[in-house]
Amino acid sequence: MRKLPIAVAALALMTGAASAQTNTLNTPPRPAPGAATTAPMHKAAAINPLTQEDVSKIDGTSVYGNNDEKIGHISTILMDPSSKKIDRLVVTAGGVLGVGGHRVAIPVEQFSWDADKDAFKMGTTVAELKQMPEWVEGGQQTATGSSLPPRDLSNKPSDNTKNPPNGAGDSSR
Q: pLDDT digits over 24-44, tens only?
């Protein structure tokens, strides 16, 4: 009978020692009072992706307007086929998860790089951007090389509306 209490006491001592070791390993060391602490590290200034060889980093870059509000992001990069140089960036404003945004092709000269924000800046607002003609992928280029006018998706009534074809809308069958 004596062996059981001794075994329980030994087990309790070993468990206490193990938990003490666990606590000292998980707690970070505290600096001594009055010790100098290091300043938080600042991230390096971002490099303008238009000056880089790999232009794939441009896609998705945020665009800020003249009032320092985010107005959209770069969704497409367009180049002049004759010179093989990037001449326009398509900015998508609005939309949800990349769907339903207003896309506008804007000449590269209208963008400036903000290294602190790691983003492009423009001298416009969201409202002004949404008033610009929408860029349509695969459409013909306009004379200025900017955006294309929006497509006219209105349905024009045909002459058949007065007399529908036989059987159309006939519910007698």
A: 555 556 666 655 555 555 566
**H helical segments located in 54-163:** 126-131
**Backbone φ, ψ for residue 31 (5° rounding):** -70, 150
Using the CB atoms, write b or e for 107-130: b if 16+ within 10 Å. Answer: eeeebebbeeeebbbbebebeebe
Alpha-carbon distance values, 23 to 9, 15, 19, 134 (Å):
21, 12, 6, 61
pTM above 0.85, yes or no: no
Question: Coil, strand, or helix at residue 148?
Answer: coil
Q: Is residue 16 assigned to a domain?
A: no
Tell me which residue range forms the domain holding 104: 52-131
- Helix/strand/coil for 128: helix
Nearest residue to 50 via CA among 59, 41, 40, 38: 59
Using the structure block, give the residue that is written with the tokens 């404003």.
93
If one counts the domains in the chain, the total is 1
Check: CB of residue 78 under 8 Å from CB of residue 91: no
